[in-house]
Predict the 3D structure of the following.
Amino acid sequence: MSTSTLPEILTHVDAGVMTLTLNRLERKNSITAAMYGAMADALESANHDTAVRAVVIQGHETIFSAGNDIGDFLNNPPATPESPVFRFLRGISSFPKPLVAAVCGPAVGIGTTMLLHCDLVDTGDNAAFSLPFVNLGLCPEAASSFLVPQLMGYPRAAEALLLGEPFMAETALEMGLINRIVPPAEANALAQRQALKLAAKPLSALMETKRLMKKGNAGMVAERMAEEGASFGRMLQEPAAREAFTAFMQKRRPDFSKV
C-alpha cells in the first residue's frame, strides 16, 4: 500500500513495514514544517495500525537530510508544543514499535538527532553527521544534550555539540550511534531487510523489550526535550541566532564578535 499526503514525504507500507522516504532532493532533503507534520502523522498512524510492525526512515543514497529548511523555519518558527517539529520529536522519541533508519550522505542537525531515537541505523560509507546548533546561535534539540553525552561520553559530546563539526560513518560506528556501514547503494536495502526481520517477530515481545530498554531514560528524555524546546524558542529570537540566519541567507560568514 502506498500513500503520499505530501510529495516530500513518501509513505509506503508493505509486508508489515512502513517506509518514510525524505523526497526533497532539490533542497537536499531539508525539512519544512509541513514535512515534520507529515512524519508525525505517519508515526501516529503506524503506532495505531496493527498491520504496521516496524518503520523505516530513509533518504537518498547521496543525502539523508540537510536539517531544517532555514527559510521555512524562519517563516514558521516552532512557537508552541504542538508545532509540527515538536510533534515529530515526541512521536519518534516515544514510538513503541521498532524504528530503523538508513542514512547516506550528510545528516545535519535533526538529521542526526532523530537517529538517537531509532533502534537500528544502517549507513552508507559516505554518511557525514553534524550537530551545528551552536554555530546557529542555538542549543541542541531532540534531547540530544542528554543522549549524546550518554552515548559518546562527555569529551566527544562536547566536541560534537560545541564545535559542531562533521564526523564520518566510521566515527559514528565507533561511538555506537550506528550499527553497520555499507556502500551507499546498499544502505536502504539493508534497512529494509532488517525491518522485515523485525516484522516477522512477535510484535508484543519487540515492543515490551524496547519499552524495558528505554524505560530508564524515558522520563529524562521527555523532560530534557521540553527544556531544550523552551531554550531553543528563546534563543531563536536572540541576536546570535538572528546574525547566524541572516549570514546564512546572505551566503556570508556570521560575525558573532558583538553578540
Q: What stands out?
A: The mean pLDDT is 95. The chain has ten helices and ten strands. The chain has one domain: 2-183. The two ends are 52 Å apart (CA to CA).
